[in-house]
Amino acid sequence: MNLQDMLAIEDLKKCVDFHGHICPGLLIGYKAAKIGMAKLNEQRAEDEEMAAIVETDACCSDAVQVLTGCTFGKGNFIYRDYGKMAFTFFSRKTGQGVRVSMKPDAMELGDEHRNLLQKVMSGSASQEEQKRFEELHFERSCLILEKPSEYLFNISPVKEEMPSKARIEPSVICSCCKEPTMPSKTQKKGDQTLCRGCAVSE
Description:
CATH 3.30.1330.130, 2 domains, alpha+beta, five-stranded mixed beta sheet
């Protein structure tokens, strides 16, 4: 598969356009979201028909947003800072959920790829090394796209409750910074109502 073939896949191209480039992490999120939606028999959410929980803020989360239609702004895209390539999808229509988590060796890099990644991340890679890294990164992306899902992911029913719908609340004014804040995101300190930022700095 070459770049042209990959970008001919319409929904994948949308993910690439949103994220900015093709990489293995984006492909993991793309495949995980496709699996989750297929298991739940769901289409892209226009509003809050679905909810998604991601356990990483890495590249894969962008693909989940694009494919599922779950976003921070709609309150149905939830981030948990666990550092895992794991994704939970819910259907509000059926009440069902599925968790899709990456297997330990799904993105295992070869020695050359791993060494070049370290150089690129540290800013010490030469132009030739940067080019070679990009070649290997693209090859890994193609491999992830072509691999059967069972080689990449553990897939299991969800045991936790579905996230509640987004809350819309009239703001209150933080006693310290005087900025409008959602009441459910404030903390009481004596007779003061503080936003979380001010509560931490107090």
